[in-house]
Specification:
Chain lengths: 117, 114
């Protein structure tokens, strides 16, 4: 399997611009997670989906952030408008099971390094 | 609420020396515990996990971890460190309930001296 695929790997944009990060989970996995990693706050869960449905978006920082999962093989995380404090590495992860299966391993993508100038 | 503490932000060991990375958790029931490793510029890779049974868990790359309920700990160990083990290590606990969220610690950065 190709693993979790994220694009782009690096994104540099200017403040106020729209940014879209993309993720393709491992085929057959039912859960998808978006994380943000910064030096100050560490690894934070932003949102997760189960069977394409958002289950918990309590980690989404504010209305500028939105995430969608239109089908089982694709998800996007959008920031509009972007701000310099959004600069971070954004990871997507997927796991096989659905809700209530805390033993499931989460498989991480390589991440997207976002820089907002 | 569930939480994970990794008290050591940065650790340096000599190549060939033994390693122990500490992890303490807060959880009301039997926890599901994980150790992940992140190499520079890479995503996180699972080293090992515990959810039941034998409290000593073997993982990849020669790592092991021991679950100690009395100490609320899940420390990661390796008998002999290799230079390629230099990375950041994250401990995580399953959030429980009808969810498969993970709560991550802040990580321990491991440096290996030749």
């Amino acid at each position: 399997d190709a693993g979790v695929i994220q694009s782009p790997r690096h994104e540099v944009t200017e403040m106020g611009q729209e940014v879209t990060l993309r993720c393709k989970p491992i085929s057959g996995h039912n859960s998808l997670f978006w994380y943000r990693q910064t030096m100050m706050r560490g690894l934070e869960l932003l949102i997760y989906f189960n069977n394409n449905v958002p289950i918990d978006d309590s980690g989404m920082p504010e209305d500028r952030f939105s995430a969608k999962m239109p089908n089982a093989s694709f998800s996007t995380l959008k920031i509009q408008p972007s701000e310099p404090r959004d600069s971070a590495v954004y990871f997507c992860a997927s796991s096989l099971g659905g809700g209530g299966s805390s033993t499931d391993t989460q498989y991480f993508g390589p991440g997207t390094r976002l820089t907002v100038l | 609420a569930q939480s994970v503490t990794q008290p050591d932000i940065h650790i340096t060991v000599s190549e060939g020396a033994s390693l122990e990375l500490r992890c303490n958790y807060s959880y009301g029931a039997t926890p599901y515990l994980f150790w992940y490793v992140q190499s520079p510029g890479q995503g996180l890779q699972l080293l090992l996990k515990y959810f039941s049974g034998d409290t000593l868990v073997q993982g990849i790359k020669g790592f092991e971890a021991e679950f100690k309920r009395s100490q609320s700990s899940f420390n990661l160990r390796k008998p002999s460190v290799h230079w390629s083990d230099a990375a950041e290590y994250f401990c995580a606990v399953g959030a429980g309930g009808a969810t498969n969220k993970l709560i991550f610690g802040t990580g321990t950065l491991l440096a290996v001296q030749p």
